[in-house]
Amino acid sequence: MREVKKGSLQFVQRYNQTLILRLIRQRAPLSRYQLAKLTQLSPTTVGAAVEELLSMGLLRETEGSSTGGRKPRMLELNAKGNMVLAVGFMGGQFALCNLQGQILQQHPLVFKSQDGPGMLGELAEQLKAFLEAQERENVLGVGISIPGLVDPETGRVLFSSYLGWQHLPLADRLNEALGLPVVVENDGIALALGETIFREALERGEEDFIYLHAGYGIGATLVLGGEIQRGSGQLAGEIGHMSIDWQGPQCSCGNRGCLETLISIPRLLARYQSLTGTAINYSQFREKLEGGDEAALAVLDYCGTLLGVGLVNICNLLNPQLILLGGDLSLLGAKLLQKLEENISSHALPGTREVTVQIAGPHGGGELAGAAAMVVERMFTLPYVG
Ligand SMILES: [Zn+2]
Questions:
Q1: What is the per-residue DSSP string for 259-326?
Q2: Rounded CA separation 76/156 (Å)
Q3: What is the CATH number of domain 204-359?
Q4: CA atoms in the 13 A half-sphere facing the CB of 194
Q5: Which one of 186, 213, 244, 262 is least enclosed by Cβ atoms within 10 Å?
């Protein structure tokens, strides 16, 4: 995953290899002939790039079905022997995954330290010990999902209130310790990447979708034209701070009436308490809802209406094909979806209301698959190649 200088021969070769890898990931199996047609590269160039990828073990050949003559040799990704290490700090787990995002082995992350540098040292030790027990030449890289603000270029954790970390050079330190490329992303981006890469939304032609992560906090990852939109300060998608009531309750961000101040799980539970005088936790709330409790249904209705207002704004602004709802709010399931769909179909502009709203996962496989997807994504991002 080294960057190579634009315009150099090496750059052109890497570019061609990445282009071929991307096409094969999306449309495999493909023959060399089909690749030449799709890339508009010469058969010789395609042949050389394919040979290189075969020798790197990233591709494998299979026999296609014949239409009369000799059976064509088809190319697909070589899942065997190409693995990535995925680390998820929300769930406190790490896993060995294949290039399809399937988890082969999973282990808990164990920490004695509580401070960032101490935890980083222990993480390096755990991963190193794990890799030593593997055929480590098969591991292409490490993807790490962090609940917090991350600079994906440098792999630095800028701030995570959940972990109590600030300005931690996570990728650099782990790269030094493990000798492998390390990619670090925010957990919301990781989940959306899992969906993008492994759910094969792109292969189904869904290039514009929103991954909404709603629970104790609310955020979204925007995928437009098949690319994750990050914004100039890496903050695009902060839908939790979309104000839908300028006179609403004060938010920690300084604004009023942000979605997060209205329908995050603590706010919904507080609303239930104000209606009934009873304090309950989220799983009790879901049980009440299942049992048809009137106050719980009223809170669900409120949540669906307000989140619906937010989604109508998003539909009108970005016109996505698909909205995937993840996070703990998605546990409210079909009842919430129905409310959201009603809102969108009656309030979004004609032409933007034809959006599908779905509960996310288990397609993307959650945080660990998302972390694996980060490494896979870099492999398929021009002009990088593993
Ligand atoms: Zn706010």
A1: HHHHHSHHHHHHHHHHHHS----HHHHHHHHHTT-HHHHHHHHHHHHHHHHHHHHHHHHH--SEEEEE
A2: 34
A3: 3.30.420.40
A4: 33
A5: 244
Ligand 1 center–CA 143 separation, angstroms:
30
Task: Return the residue matching tokens 């282990």.
Answer: 107
Ligand 1 centre from 255 Cα, in Å? Answer: 5
Q: Cα angle at 237 between 142 and 159, to 5 degrees?
A: 55
Residue 250 CB neighbour total at 10 angstroms: 11
- Say how many Å lie between the CA of residue 244 and the centre of ligand 1: 10
| Residue 304 alpha carbon to ligand 1 centre in Å | 19
For 147-189, write each residue's pLDDT tens digit.
888 988 899 999 888 899 999 999 999 999 999 999 999 888 8
> Where do the structural domains in the chain lie, given as residue ranges?
9-77, 83-193+366-379, 204-359
Question: Distance, CA 332 to ligand 1 centroid (Å)?
Answer: 23
The CATH code for residues 83-193+366-379 is 3.30.420.40
The span from the CA of 73 to the CA of 383, in Å, is: 27
Q: Euclidean distance between the first and final Cα of the chain, in Å?
A: 5
What backbone phi and psi angles, to 5 degrees, belong to 150?
-130, 145
CATH number for 9-77 (one of 3.40.190.10, 2.60.200.20, 2.60.40.650, 1.10.10.10): it is 1.10.10.10
**The whole model's pTM is what?**
0.67
Residue 146 to residue 112: CA distance in whole angstroms: 18
For ligand 1, the distance from its centroid to the CA atom of residue 318, given in whole angstroms, is: 21
Amino acid at 156: R
The residues with which 214 forms a beta bridge, in sequence order, are: 218
How many angstroms is it from 259 CA to the middle of ligand 1?
7
**Do β-strands 165-168 and 156-160 pair in parallel, antiparallel, or remain unpaired?**
antiparallel
- Which residues are found with C-beta within 5 Å of the ion, ligand 1? 241, 251, 253, 255, 258
Domains 83-193+366-379 and 204-359 share a fold: yes
pLDDT tens for 33-81 read 999 998 889 999 999 999 988 988 888 998 877 667 777 889 988 877 7
- Say if residue 238's pLDDT is above 60: yes
